[in-house]
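Troubleshooting: if your tokenizer reports a length mismatch, compare your output against this known-good record of 304 residues.
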Amino acid sequence: MKRLLSLIMTAIMCLCMLMALTGCSEPPNNYVGWNGNYQDSFLHDDKNLFSDTQRQELDEMIQQKAKELEMNILIYVNGTYRSDYETKDFCDCTYEAFFQPDTDGLMYYLDLSSKVPAYDYISTSGKAILLYEENRESIFSHMDLYLPSSGSSYESDQIYDAVVEFLNQLSVYANNGNTSHYYHDESKGTYIYYKGDKLYVTTKKPLILLLPIWFASAIIGLVTALITFLISKRHYTFKAKTNPSVYLSKDAVNFTQKSDNHIRTYQTRHRISSSSSGGGGGHRSGGGGGHHSSGSHGGGGHHR
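Known-good structure output:
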């Protein structure tokens, strides 16, 4: 019973050490956050749809929302045709061009290019990924009530109201508590999640994904330890050690002479390499000029 208890305790200690090594270490973090400059948020009117007064009013509302939510907001009213794939790449790159990679914020792309079907897009970064990834489709569905269907006519006031409603939706879903526990950006191989109160953008998996691995390892370890114990107990009979002196009489054994003779001689030879024959150091390659490394993004598109 003591041996079994010892094996179980050993397995539990190994599991605890595994959790400490894999779950409690500080992962590398690419997260930048928000710089507090809400004045950087704005509306870009590529369609030249709004008057100067309307653009100023929308800019002020966008900046107020950016200050409230503590993240960057870019609303892009598009008048140029782009494919669905080009739209995604354009939104991710445009966000980073204005606000830098892995900062807190989003870009809302309104497709008014007369493409059928129209393709709106939301690109998220930093904490906005976790805030809106679970709610993105609900936001799109709600916005369909305000936006024109593909190919139909519209007025600037209609799009103005749609922008205002989108800003309202950002507050609704930021405050409803229905946020993602983590997000995996497969294209970058990164995970976005909170650890305590700190947000991480990292290649290390969050704890919620490691729990099944820990549980399976614990079960396998305990079963293996139990099987090993039962097999050992079945094949061996543990008895107390016997003193061999009980089989010999002290008077019957006498050592009268001791000798130490060398019956063989061995010689060992080693080749000594010259220090000048060593290999050179590894080749150091130059930097890859022109390579663009972007941050991690969530989001997606919606046809209307």
